[in-house]
Design a protein that fits this description.
single chain; mainly alpha
Length: 165
């Protein structure tokens, strides 16, 4: 029992160090996660064997052996939970990145609203010059909205920056 316990204990410490590397690894994290999960599965099978062997220990050593196996079980369950939490955080981070990319790639135009405004302006008999000014203003408003999303220092109103007169 003792050699198997020592091997398992050593493997638990190796997984703990891998968990530390997992936090810093970006691209390779899935590969490291798979290695850790395979090691945890292997440890669980060793723990089953250790439970059987601890019950076969002499009565004066049995209690201590069971406590050591239980401690290893607790440590491995803690590692399993930490791995799941990391996977959950990674999944949430990837989902946020996808949503961010989707938002950044989305064009913020009010095509339907802009078309309705131009139709109304045309019905009212406004000239092409006025309609072009409306389109220019819509473009500038769009530029202003995009500029403020990027934490731009100057806002553009009517072709001038907000700070100029």
């Amino acid at each position: 029992m003792e050699p198997l316990y020592q091997q398992t204990h050593k493997q638990v410490h190796e997984i703990q160090s891998c968990m530390g590397r997992l936090e810093t690894a970006d691209k390779q994290s899935v590969h490291i996660e798979n290695e850790i999960q395979a090691s945890i599965d292997q440890i669980f099978s060793r723990l089953e064997r250790l439970e059987i062997l601890s019950s076969k220990e002499p009565p004066n050593k049995r209690q201590n052996a069971k406590l050591r196996v239980d401690q290893l079980k607790y440590d491995v369950q803690h590692l399993q939970t930490a791995l799941r939490n990391f996977q959950h955080r990674r999944h949430a981070r990837e989902q946020q990145e996808r949503q961010r990319e989707e938002l950044l790639s989305r064009t913020f135009t009010a095509n339907g609203t802009q078309k309705k405004i131009l139709d109304i302006a045309n019905m009212l008999g406004l000239s092409n010059t006025v309609m072009r000014l409306i389109e220019k203003r819509a473009f500038q408003d769009k530029y202003f909205m995009i500029g403020t999303q990027g934490s731009c220092q100057t806002a553009h109103f009517g072709g001038r920056s907000a700070g100029s007169s």
